[in-house]
Amino acid sequence: MNIANHFSLLFVLLSCVWTHTNARFRIIGGQYINIESSPHTVAIVGNRNYYYCVGSIVNYHSVLTAAHSVKNEILANLKVLAGVSEIRSTFKGEGQRHKVENIHYDPDYDPETLFMDIAVVKVITPFDLNSAVKIIPLCDIPAATDSDMEISGWGGTVINSDICSPLLKSKIVKIADGQQCRDPISNTLLSADYAETIMFAGRSGEGICFGDSGAGGVVNGKLCAVAQGGFEEPDYPDLYTNITNPKVREFITRWM
Fold this sequence. Notes:
Strand order of the largest sheet: 4-5-6-9-8-7
Number of strands: 16
Shape: globular
Largest sheet: 6 strands, antiparallel, barrel
């Protein structure tokens, strides 16, 4: 069954239009930050810096993002922008621009249910680490319910709008009780395997929005989750891939 048909699940869009003229479009409830405050965060863009999604640097050649954002894209058209707070900055020679060599997906990835919605993007040239470009370590254990999780990206603030922010922004959200969140849907939509690969945080109207696919969820300085999408249901939390899950972690480790 397609999740969208049952719950009106509004998955974060793969890409969006960004603008200088309307600076209010940002992560819902978030604030603008400099890239030095979230130096693992990168933008994955296409030709002419057309913005697709967010990613996180996990080693010198690897970025974690959401599979649904980059699946079937032409590798030669993709670039990873690192070390920039503003996407247009690379036109001015700021930050780093890396060509993509390959993208790895789990063979069990399902675009309908977003099972294993995780991808490892490999860049050709290594990231040049500095105060604005840093590798983030991965969480070793699941984050506790009610923990603060920070998300950063260039997404929108209004549901059903495709306008994204040219400026980086950030938001602290609370990790939700996964079992409680799964109860309304697990009997008909989620297999046990799928349920263990996801986690929930924030709530509808506060957190990730269009263009924030792939945004890293950071707890105590470590990457614990990758943004998938959000629900239209009132007060229902956003959906993330849980990278501490053994199946997810094995895939990441294999291709990093």
